[in-house]
Amino acid sequence: MSSLLSWLSIANLGIGNVGTSEMSMAMAGGDSQKARSVFSSGLIMISCLMVFISPVIVCIAFLTPWTSMLGVGVERYFEFANAVLFLAVSVGVSFFGGMFSARFVAGGKAYIAIHTATARPWFDLLASIIGLSISCRFDVLAFSLMCSVIAHTLIVQLYSLIFVPILSFSMECVDPIISKRLLRLGLAFQAFPIGNALIFQGFVVVVQFGLGSTSVVLFSTARTLVRSVNQIMEFVNQVVWPEMARLIGQSDYRRAAKLHRVSVSTSFLLAVVMTLVLGIFGKIIFRLWTGGQLNLSGNLLWLFLVPIPFNALWFTSSLVHAACNQHGHLAIRYLAATSCALICSIPLTYYFGIGGTAIAAGIVDLLLVRFVFIKSLEITKDNYADFTRGIISGFRLVPSIASKWLHIGESINR
């Protein structure tokens, strides 16, 4: 059921992501009217999208043979059907939340967007506790989570309007030309979640059919442990993205290039440090995490870890593409790279087991790193010589930058 909803989340067409960049660049360039048009057009597009997919959601919820699929009694059919319906509504409401959070970012208050985003899991946790205290039925739990999402989205809407009143909704500001641009950019952006689904869910399917269920548990748990490093890179991107969009919107390419260099060096060095830490203590953490039920060999662990620093290079650099909505070519290449990795994982898994699957994941990094840097340097009007010198200088700045960002992260967590 969770996997079904993760695929449904792709239906937002990336409007929230591309809308954030468009609004940020417009506000940075002093064009608040255009930013308001992007905001209003984005909300209308999401509303139309929800009207369009609602019948599909209802059909999926009430025409899927849940009882035979899940091996449960027929009396539980409506429990699962209603649960899927409630969870689908939660996903749909979260689409609007993305646009409301974009209002914070465009208004120069990205830190509030981060605060509200980190509050969301606590809303869900509280709703889950309340729901499970009432009943252990799936539909009751799903209804509780739906209420949590609705409440959180309403709060974000209210606060974003208070802090950035200039970006209010108006039907007069809805622009068909802007809507077409958002749709085109959003469809391109959807290549990223589709590619993620291929490489994450697709690899699980390959391991399942090639090696069996036990290997799936080992592979999924090891990958989750290793991908904790990616959360650091994602944190760097979330901090840098709004500022990068603002600088490019102001045509301040000198500072944008400097920010790009420092971001890449910070992310890369943090990834190297965390990779070494997991390389040393990963087996112990894995054994404690699984209660000693599974063993992870050192060689297999390193096969998962080695691609992480290389992934940090292009992943952090790619935020330049996304921040100014020039991600179209990267999106196509990312989808092609993940498809290639998935195809290669089949023979590699067959001949080398889970280690072969881990090797296949590194193919994506090899195929993307060169293109991402070339395009990022082009956007920021930088060159390889200055970029390389900036990276080296950035390494010297990393300790103070990392300390500052981690301090921000700790305050957010509190």
Give the tags.
mainly alpha, 0% strand, 414 residues, 18 helices, 85% helix
> How much strand content do the residues show?
under 5%
Mean pLDDT: 83
Note the main sheet: none
H/E topology pattern: HHHHHHHHHHHHHHHHHH
Could you give a short description of this structure?
By secondary structure, the chain is mostly helical. It has helices at residues 2-8, 15-28, 32-63, 66-70, 77-106, 110-134, 138-163, 176-189, 191-211, 213-226, 228-249, 253-289, 298-305, 307-317, 319-323, 328-352, 354-379, 384-413. The longest helix has 37 residues, at 253-289.
Overall description:
It is a single chain. The mean pLDDT is 83. The protein has helices at 2-8, 15-28, 32-63, 66-70, 77-106, 110-134, 138-163, 176-189, 191-211, 213-226, 228-249, 253-289, 298-305, 307-317, 319-323, 328-352, 354-379, 384-413. The chain has 18 helices and no strands. Helix 13 (298-305) packs parallel to helix 17 and helix 16 packs antiparallel against helix 17 (354-379).
Would you spell out the secondary-structure blueprint of this structure?
Elements: H1 2-8, H2 15-28, H3 32-63, H4 66-70, H5 77-106, H6 110-134, H7 138-163, H8 176-189, H9 191-211, H10 213-226, H11 228-249, H12 253-289, H13 298-305, H14 307-317, H15 319-323, H16 328-352, H17 354-379, H18 384-413
